[in-house]
Write a structure and sequence with these properties.
The protein is mostly helical. Among the domains are: 8-165, no CATH class; 493-581, Leucine-rich Repeat Variant (Alpha Horseshoe), CATH 1.25.10. Helix content is 62%, strand content 5%. It has 31 helices and five strands. A five-stranded antiparallel sheet has the order 3-2-1-4-5, with helices on both faces. Strand 2 (81-84) and strand 3 form a beta hairpin.
Length: 588
């Protein structure tokens, strides 16, 4: 049956008529999680395989637990989740593996399971879902297949989609869970396969491989197996898909599924965890950070899931995670990124680094500051910014670290997070820290514009370090620290500034002009045009900087002052006046 359905949220509200405390929400949630796993095992294993039969059995049991309290369940389908009685009972935003997207893509908007489906029609449903997961454009969609099957214990509603998936946009990438014959063969030949965890299965697959190796093209008569152009193109597309697809996610999923299939075996568990420990450095060495992150995330999930791992398995998983966060591992990872052995984008690196233990943040901060390649350093620092969100207390801790490189990295993170509680600690570092630390504080002050930091920046204007003075003046203007206007005005009139180099003078005049605005025209005009009783004027560089400052303010009074100096006898001043007046909009 196919008809138009109301909005999903409205339907969810209409269905929520029961006391939430009485609903078997956890049982329904477990049911759909088990359905997703059973569908994955349907793709990976033969129908008579014990692993597949075990997953189907788990699914039947999940249905029976729900039927113990209800005779049917109706779920609403959204693109990335399933809803039952107003409760979210399934979510997966990865379209390639998502059960909800598989249903939503072909127009299904609600699905009703009735008691008895687990006895008569369960494997028919799994077969239909498997067939549409990697559907060709010209093949039947899910709604059509369900219509043909006419299942007695399944009802659904669907919407009509626009041609060529216009409603949903581009179809997702090929499903990484699809069966990968070539990948399994490659793993077998390399001496590693999840199937080796079961001796009977290992012998069976070994015999199959021997048979495959004995097949020869001479055994076949081409005339009996000729394909037309359309079939040949279809097979070529499938072959290209299989050879280009990454088999690692499917292998990782299979390993973690074997940990979670309900059959307890410490020997098998130990072999799985050891295999994961061997795969992790391999992935990192290949620069395959997404799969490495997925492996670590799976280990962390297994470690915290109650009663999943034995004490020995827990200890092995803990050791893998500790080794990953060790300073030596971090140093090797950073070195590989710096020398180009690993080329990754910021999102991939952040996805991996989020799984580091908190103790690894300090060494990583120090190493990031010492990376010589600008691009690599920015990638690591960007990933650190993503890692630090939600870890503000840890960042504050590293502000008091004994290694200046760690402190500089922590200051950058505090600034990128706009963490205002760090202001007092930053003021202390700005007043008494080493030069690299003080420069980092000035940079961070642009994103944490507090009064204590502004007042500390005013003190830096008279520091011995020229670079610190310039950086402080520019930051004061950028954060619009108005109390700095009289301090900058006094410096502009001082002989010390007139004796400094032109870069510093331009920084101070520019900061004053930006802060004071039209109110600063009077002082800049005086410096530009002042002539003493004896005809003496301000130094040439100071007058030129005043002209450039007027050019930053513009406005009628500033333009009038500049126009009076257009024919000044000093060529340096005339050049600066022309630059100021040449700005867009300077003369109306």
């Amino acid at each position: 049956m196919t008809d138009q359905t109301p909005e999903v949220d409205a339907m969810a509200g209409a269905m929520d008529w029961e006391d939430p405390a009485s609903l078997p929400v956890e049982e329904v949630r477990t049911l759909f999680l088990t359905l997703s796993k059973a569908l994955r095992s349907y793709q990976l294993y033969d129908r008579n395989n014990p692993v597949y039969r075990r997953f189907v059995g788990n699914l039947v049991e999940a249905f029976e637990r729900v039927w113990a309290v209800r005779d049917e369940i109706q779920v609403l389908i959204e693109e990335d989740r399933l809803i039952w009685m107003g409760e979210e009972i399934y979510r997966d935003e990865a379209r390639g593996s998502s059960l909800s997207f598989l249903l939503f893509r072909d127009g299904l908007r609600d699905l009703t399971f009735r008691k008895g489906i687990e006895r008569d029609e369960l494997e028919v449903l799994l077969d239909v879902l498997h067939r549409v997961r990697s559907v060709r454009q010209d093949a039947d969609d899910l709604v059509t297949l369900l219509w043909d099957m006419d299942l007695n214990h399944l009802r659904y509603s669907a919407v009509d989609l626009l041609p060529e998936s216009a409603l949903l946009g581009q179809l997702p990438e090929p499903d990484p869970d699809a069966l990968d014959v070539e990948g399994i063969l490659e793993l077998e030949l390399d001496g590693f396969s999840p199937s080796k965890l079961d001796d009977a299965e290992a012998v069976n697959q070994s015999n199959m491989l021997d048979q495959i190796r004995e097949i020869r093209t001479e055994d076949f008569n081409p005339a009996f197996y000729a394909l037309d152009d359309r079939d040949r193109a279809y097979i070529e597309d499938l072959f290209a898909l299989e050879t280009s697809r990454n088999p690692r996610p499917a292998v990782l999923n299979a390993l973690f599924d074997r940990l979670d299939d309900g059959a307890k075996s410490e020997t098998r568990e130990s072999e799985i965890v050891r295999a994961l420990g061997q795969l992790l450095p391999t992935f990192l060495g290949q620069g395959n950070l997404p799969d490495a992150a997925a492996l670590i995330a799976g280990l962390e999930k297994a470690r915290v899931q109650q009663d999943l791992l034995s004490p020995s398995g827990m200890a092995e998983a803990e050791q893998i995670l500790e080794e990953f966060s060790a300073p030596e591992s971090i140093r090797e990872l950073v070195r590989a990124i710096e020398d180009g052995s690993i080329r990754v984008d910021e999102d991939e690196l952040a996805l991996l680094l989020r799984h580091l233990r908190p103790s690894a943040l300090g060494p990583l901060l120090a190493m990031a500051e010492k990376i010589s390649d600008d691009s690599a350093r920015e990638s690591v620092q960007a990933a650190l910014r993503g890692l630090a969100r939600g870890q503000e207390a840890l960042v504050m801790h590293f502000l008091g670290h004994g290694d200046p490189a760690v402190v500089v990295g922590a200051i950058r993170l505090a600034g990128s997070l706009g963490h205002r509680p760090a202001s007092d600690r930053l003021v202390g570092l700005l007043d008494s820290g080493p030069r690299p630390v003080r420069l980092a504080v000035i940079e961070a002050a642009r994103r944490i514009p507090t009064t204590p930091l502004g007042e500390a920046l005013l003190r830096v204007l008279e520091d011995e370090s020229r670079d610190l003075r310039i950086a402080a003046a520019r930051t004061l203007a950028e954060i619009r620290f108005v109390p700095g206007i009289p301090v900058l005005a006094a410096i502009l009139r001082s002989k010390e500034l007139h004796a400094s180099d032109v870069s510093e003078q331009m920084a101070f005049f520019g900061a004053y002009a930006d802060l004071a605005g039209p109110e600063g025209v009077k002082l800049l005009d005086r410096i530009l045009h002042y002539r003493s009783f004896l005809g003496r004027r301000e130094p040439s560089q100071a007058r030129a900087c005043a002209a450039l400052g007027l050019g930053r303010i513009l406005g009628p009074a500033a333009i009038a002052s500049l126009e009076r100096a257009e024919r000044d006898e000093d060529p340096v001043v005339r050049s600066a006046v022309r630059r100021a007046l040449s700005q867009e909009g300077a003369r109306g």
